[in-house]
Every structure is written in C-alpha cells, then in structure tokens.
Amino acid sequence: MSLPRRLAFIDVESTGAHPVRDRITEIAILRVEDGEVVARWDSLVDPGRPIPALIQGVTGISDDMVAGAPAFEAVADTVAGLLEGCVFVAHNARFDYGFIKNAFARSGREFDAPVLCTVKLSRALYPEHHRHGLDALIERHSLVCTARHRAMGDAEVLWQFVQLARAGFAAEVLEQAVARAMKAPQTPPGLPEGLLEALPDVPGVYLLHAEAEAPPPGRSDRPLYIGRAASLRARVKEHFSGAARKGRDASLAAQVQRVEWRETAGELGAQLLEHALLCALRPSANRAPESGAEAFALRLLENRRRPPIWQRVKIAGSDPGSWDGLYGAFRTPREADNLLRELALLYRLCPRRLGLEAGATGACSAHAARRCAGVCAGRETPAEHDARLAAALEAVRVKPWPWPGAVVVGERHADSGREAFHLFARWCHLASADSVDALAAAAERTPAFDLDIWRIFSRWLAVPGNPDRVRPL
Predict the structure, then answer these.
(1) pLDDT tens by residue, 109-121
(2) Per DSSP, which regions of 331-413 are E strands?
(3) Is 187 exposed, middle or buried (0-12, 13-18, 19+ CB in 10 A)?
(4) Which of 33, 152, 200, 296 could staple 28 via S-S, CB 3.0–4.6 A?
C-alpha cells in the first residue's frame, strides 16, 4: 500500500517559531481515510498572550480575532479525536508536531503519533528541485491555496500535493518515498520536540543553554555556547548530528537543554550581534573573548637615542579622527612585539633599537648573523634605520576612513524579508536599526574605537561587492 490508510493533514499558526515558548493561534485538520476526506475542522485559538506585529502581518491573525476564541485546552478533545489513529501529516512536520505535543503537555496530556513530513516527501519524489517550501510547491505544481499562512488554506494545499503525488508515481515508488518522509530524525534527548525544525533557515546568532527553562527576570541566563550562522537551522543541527558526537562537540550536545536564537538580516549583523553577546555573556564553552579595553597603537619617537624608539598609545574608546602618527592596532604587548620581530627579520632592523633585546653598547645579536643592518654598530644612522621601520609599519597602519562622514550598510534577507541598517563612522559601529530613519540620533554620537569591531568591519569590506553596499548617511 503506497499511503497509510488514515492521514491527518494539519497546520498550525502561532505567535512565533519556538514550540515551547510560543503558543498556537489557529489549528486546521483534514482527516483522510482511504483517500477520502471524512472530517474537516479548523479553529482560532486564544494564545493567552499578544501576537507580535510581525506575525500578525504574515498570518493576518490579530489579537482582536483570537480574543473570543477558545484556549487550546477547550479544543484539546476535538484535536485528539481528529488525530486518533492517523499519521500526522504537515509541512516541516516536526515544527507543527512540536507545537501540538507541547500544547497537549501543558494540558497534562501525552500525545504521540507517526509523522509524515511533506517537505521530505517532496525531496524524495522530486530530487531535481532545490526548493521544497510550501510556496515553491504551490508554484511548481499549480496548487490552489485559498488562504496562504492560514491554517486551513495551508492544510488543503498539502492534501492536494499528496493527491498529485499518488496519481503521478507508481505505488512502490510512492511507498519508498513515504517511508523516507516518515523516518524520524535523531532528536537530542534534552531538547523539546520540534525545536530544531522550528529554527529558521536565515542568518543569525544561536545560544545553547544547559537549563531547560530560562531563569526569572533579573537572574543571569549565561549560555553554554554562542555561535553565528548563515543558516540557523543547518548550523544548529550540525551540533547534534552523528558527525559531531565526539570529543568536545559530543560533550556540548549532551548538556544542551534549550536553544535560543536571534535572527539577523545578514552576515554583518550576525557578526556584530555575536561579538556583543560574547562580550556580555561570556559563555563557558566558547574561547574566552580577549578584552580590547587596553588596545593600543605605536607612535615612533623622533630623534630618540636610547631604545625603545616607540611608545604605546592607548586607542580603545578613542575617536580615530583624533589619531596622528599612529601605527597598527594591538590588543596586547605580545602582539606588537611579534610584529616588530617579524619586521626586524624582513627589513634588517635592530632588535635592540626596537626594544626587543637588552643591552646598551656594542652590536646586537642579530648583527653578527647579518640580520641587522648595523645601526647598533655604527654601520647606518638612527635616522636611516627609523625611516625603514616607519615604511615597514605603514602596512599595518589603520587605514584612513574612506568616506567623508558616517555611512550606512543595509542588509536584507530575501526569504524572511528582514531588514537591518548598520551605522559606522571612522571604523566605529554607532548603532543598528530596522530603518535608516531610526539611526538619525545615533549619528550624533562620538565614535569610540573597538578593536574587534574594526577587524569585523575591515574583513567585511574586503569581500568583493560589499563596499558597493555602503551608502553615506
């Protein structure tokens, strides 16, 4: 038999994507037995909390619409009766299944059912296509949706798709595809049902927690690990895949009880958010972020006789517009010393004059090995040596800000429609917002240099095409 005898096509709308934290706002169920629809039911559901404006815009379900609707507990018996004995069919099915299972659990009831995911079914039957979202299926197969992002409209589309598949494929082919689509994923034991499937396929930052529940407001909620991803869904699933179940990754996966995430409009926003969260929360499984609070640059001292011939100038928190004659940007003295050692080898500079070697008289150790041009032995003048050093340091100087004033980088994710705008001035990040107008006040702030932000933005600008996305405020 190519299809199970009893199928329940189900779709839920909700206040958000998190199957534990968010709540159902609408349910629709089509019960199909032996290829015939025997029951059709849908209902709005009062979630007991406000529906975010973004969700209202997508679904069209407002707070006023659900104000007089029953709570889930009031329709739980009806839902259970319609689903009894059926295969649970949904698009990205573990998402809907997770919402239903968690809603029953909050009512003190258990719920289990075999699950058939129509995303997986489409992939199995039409592997030549790359997109298997509901909009892609509607367009590809000319399916009719009377109300997109409403529960009954989406459930009816799934029934149409399964009917089309049954008519278009041999029974044995369809049976194999159904078996693949019903194969349960390996779910980490500590995570609630449907959470991984609820993760959006968008850029953002994710937080892995060891506690199943967030602490009360005012108490620390320090995560185990923070990461960023171009696709939150794909990256977080990697943490719990079979390939990751060894060493440190295995230990981390075993501890995780909760996953939180924050969507961004693009890669730059994800990097900025990750940096801010790492500094603020300092998760235990991440490498501890090194502080940039003491970041400094080097200034060469003219006509200096005794080494070292440079001084450290603190630049952390300062306005780069005030800098003059500074080279490099360093987090620690070791970073600066390592660079000076490298330049000494490349340009035959004197390690003693650079302050890297002790001693006051006579040739340095590098001169005997012909690695120093001999300023320490009178073979060249200090001015000649220092001019060569200054020329070498030009390569690490913080480049002049290439725009006359503040600039905005806009990001937009095509699938989610999320937009963000990031304001920078003189290598400093002043603010981010979801509109350019919201950045106007931040443009008056005095830039304060952050070493990590400078490195993030510099690397981003080095990617071909990215500078074209920068616009003056």
Answers:
(1) 999 999 999 999 9
(2) 407-412
(3) middle
(4) 152
**Phi, psi for residue 32 in degrees, rounded to 5:** -120, 130
Whether 96 and 12 have beta carbons less than 8 Å apart is answered as: yes
If phi > 0 it is left, if psi is from -120 to 50 it is alpha, else beta; for residue 404 that is: alpha
Taking residue 340's Cβ as centre, other Cβ atoms within 10 Å add up to 21
DSSP string, 68-128: TSPPHHHHHHHHHHHHTTSEEEETTHHHHHHHHHHHHHHTT------EEEHHHHHHHH-TT
Residues 274, 280, 286, 288, Cα dihedral to 10°: 120
pLDDT (tens digit per residue) in 81-100 = 999 999 999 999 989 999 99
Tell me how crowded residue 50 is: count the other CB atoms within 10 A of its CB: 12
pTM: 0.75
| 228, 273 Cβ separation under 8 angstroms | yes
Calpha distance 455→330 (Å, rounded): 11
Left (φ > 0), alpha (ψ -120 to 50) or beta: where does 177 sit? alpha
